[in-house]
């Protein structure tokens, strides 16, 4: 499952609220010391907009 150099998959529970899932993922990465505050992460997800589902790629800082 290792796609590219520097990409490491991990399993986690998906929450009802997408922002909670992203926050939990960042907290997990911080606990494992895989990232530090201020690092930038690529978040790949989808967004429901009315009746459409849109793919989303975002750059977010770890806080």
What is the residue-averaged pLDDT? 88
What is the quaternary state of this protein?
single chain
The tally of beta strands, per DSSP, is 2
- Helical residue percent? 10-25%
Sheet/helix structural class: alpha+beta
Q: Any idea what the shape is?
A: globular
What fraction of residues sit in β-strands? 25-35%
Distance between the termini: 27 Å
> What spatial order of strands do you see in the largest sheet?
1-2
Poorly predicted regions are none
Q: Describe the biggest sheet? A: 2 strands, antiparallel
* Rounded radius of gyration (Å): 13 Å
What pattern of helices and strands is seen along the backbone?
Answer: HEE
Number of helices: 1
3D architecture notes:
The mean pLDDT is 88. The protein is globular, with a radius of gyration of 13 Å. Strand 1 and strand 2 form a beta hairpin. By secondary structure, it is an alpha+beta fold. The protein has 1 helix and 2 strands, in the order αββ. It has a domain at 18-61. A two-stranded antiparallel sheet has the order 1-2. It has one helix at 18-31, and strands spanning 40-49, 52-61. The termini are far apart. The longest helix has 14 residues, at 18-31. Helices cover 22% and strands 32% of the residues.
Topology diagram in text:
Elements: H1 18-31, E1 40-49, E2 52-61
Antiparallel strand pairs: 1-2
């Amino acid at each position: 499952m290792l796609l590219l150099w520097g990409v490491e998959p991990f399993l986690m529970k998906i929450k009802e609220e997408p922002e909670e899932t992203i926050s939990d993922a960042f907290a997990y990465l911080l606990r494992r010391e895989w990232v530090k505050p201020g690092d930038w992460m690529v978040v790949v997800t989808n967004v429901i907009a009315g009746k459409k589902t849109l793919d989303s790629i975002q750059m977010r800082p770890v806080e």
